[in-house]
Amino acid sequence: MANSFSFAVAIALLGTTGIIDWSSSAQAQGSLFTAAPVEQSRFIVVRAPIGNGERSQLNIYEQRSNKRACFAVEGSSPAVVDPLLAKFDFTGICNRYIDGNGYSLRIGGDDLGTSYRLNVVKTNEDVHLLAIPTRDTSNPTLVVARARGAVVSDNDFLKLVFEPGWQLMRRQYGQRTLGHIYVFSETWPDSSEKVAEDSSAEDPSSEATSSEDTSTKGPSTEDTSSEDTSSEDTSTKGPSTEDTSSEDTSTKGPSTEDTSSED
After folding, report:
1. ∠ at Cα 258 (242, 119), nearest 5°?
2. Which of 28, 134, 214, 249 is deepest in the core (most CB within 10 A)?
3. Whole-prediction pTM
């Protein structure tokens, strides 16, 4: 009874202060998962064109082994990416993540896949990877990465460079790493420095989105570490105990179609 009374008093006091920052209002209710470090140099974050290149989406490529190069990069500001993995069977060599099945936003201990989506947006002078709120639109839009240069050809795959504090990490359940990548920051970005303010950007709603809810699912025991994790819809499946890591999904060409679900 004493504990219940203390809890009620604490809630009442919090209610009277009315002090809450924008970051806490966007946080999820914790997470079933943790985030495990990855070797950043084996990944590349890419603006991938869709169709005729007027729209684009986020791709993440991973070099799993040194048997054959998964991608090549040429130039800078912006750097053009050649997705070499589209030209061969990359099973066991590369991973490719192209929508919300394969990646989501995480800040600190919170999975934000249901409250933020990751959009690639072209501006007049650059290309931005934005984290855009989907539930509470009063929360800020965050600039996560940039191409650091204007698009020359709409059909170009461009390397996106993370803003300070952002990196990739892998979803982990207990001691097991899973086939899902986090676009990760340890803390909420400073609102005065990292919030998108470029009013010249295209309407993000016209860009490819990754709004699938992947953060509230129960833990999957399916090993997807060597698959193209982006094309399989796992949102309605129960936990799987089947190891499908050897499944050949690698002969697909690079996706020029928006396979992510619209928010």
Report:
1. 100
2. 214
3. 0.70
Tokens of 178: 């899973």
Closest CA to 96 of 234, 214, 235, 253: 253
Query: What pLDDT shows up at residue 191?
Result: 55
How many CB atoms lie under 10 A from the CB of residue 77? 12
Residue 31 is classified by DSSP as -
Q: Using only the alpha carbons of the chain, give its radius of gyration.
A: 19
Neighbours of 203 (CB within 10 A): 7
**CA dist 46 → 49, 71, 72, 98, 145 (Å):** 10, 10, 12, 10, 10
Angle at 245 between CA 241 and CA 247, to 5 degrees: 110
Confidence of residue 29 (pLDDT cuts 50, 70, 90): very low
Nearest to 112 by CA among 4, 201, 193, 215: 215
Shortest CA distance to 146 belongs to which of 123, 171, 169, 180? 123
> Cα separation of 61 and 254, whole Å?
11
Peptide bond into 78 cis (omega under 30): yes
pLDDT digits (tens, 9 = 90+) for 182-196: 999 999 987 545 555
pLDDT for 121 beyond 70:
yes
Sheet containing 94-97: order of strands: 72-74, 80-82, 157-159, 43-50, 55-63, 94-97
